[in-house]
Amino acid sequence: MDKWVSIATPNPAAPTRLFCFPYAGGGASAYREWHHWLPRVEVAAVQLPGRENRLGERPIAAMDDLLALLVGALDPLLRERPFAFFGHSMGARIAYALTRHLEEQGGPLPAWLFASGSPAPWLRIPEVAWAEPDDRLLSWLADLGGTPPEVLGNPDLMRLALPVIRADLTIGATWGYPYTTPSSVPVHAFAATDDDYATPERARAWERETAGPCRVSIFPGGHFFLHEHAGQILRLIDDDLLSVAR
After folding, report:
1. Which residues pair with 6 in a beta bridge?
2. Which of 47, 83, 119, 176 could disulfide-link 28, Cβ–Cβ 3.0 to 4.6 Å?
3. CA atoms of 19 and 102, how far apart (whole Å)
């Protein structure tokens, strides 16, 4: 595949493709094993500039710039077969913004938007630490969890990672929420009991973002509950996608 999409295990017979968008600082590798739980779905992980195989590229720090590039890169794939979007944290907001952009342009739409670890965008919950000095940003990352202490304590690794994380957080912090009507795409929001940022209450607020069905599933854990409960989450996603296929 091209540089924008990584399909670790191609599944040309799958009736549905799931595009997965990364959390801040994350890459396509976060979704590398998901095909094990989704045998009837082709998992297509979106790879943004500045990480993994795109490490030498400048990260993008504005939602409108990112959307323009994503539409150009993904459009042929969006027209091949039915699809859905999944995003965790920042990735959920990117997936939502792309869904709304496709609606406005009359493009193909996802069958579902799966929003994990993200408050409903209309709440406009402020991003934290995106404009703070590096030491404050590192402290925030440590409190958030999800980044191994040995990585946080490695100056060389963090020298590479911090510009990408900062750019990703800037996308959310500077994006103006322009919508006055809900999307037509159904939403399934996932949240964790101990996530102070994307609380269960803020996940339930996704109901206002769609004119279609809205499901909310709550799991134990913190902001990166995604990794602990991947199997359960993906079984729910599989059920939603099968309901559309039927």
Report:
1. 45
2. 47
3. 14
Encoded tokens for 179: 């919508």
CA 103 to chain centre: 18
Among candidate residues 162, 127, 165, the one with its CA nearest the CA of residue 23: 165
Per-residue pLDDT tens over the stretch 30-44: 999 999 999 999 999
Nearby residues of 207 by Cβ (< 8 Å), 6 or more positions away: 120, 187, 214, 216
Higher pLDDT, 239 or 131: 239
- Output the pTM of the full model: 0.93
> What's the Rg (C-alpha) of the chain?
17
- Catalytic site positions: 89
DSSP-derived pairing of the beta strands 16-21 and 187-192: unpaired
CA-angle at 60, arms to 58 and 61, nearest 5°: 125
Residue 149, pLDDT > 70, answer no
Query: Tokens 């109901």 identify what position?
Result: 207
Helices first, then strands: H and E counts in the chain: 8, 7
Please say whether the beta carbons of 84 and 111 come within 8 A.
yes
d(CA 6, CA 48): 10
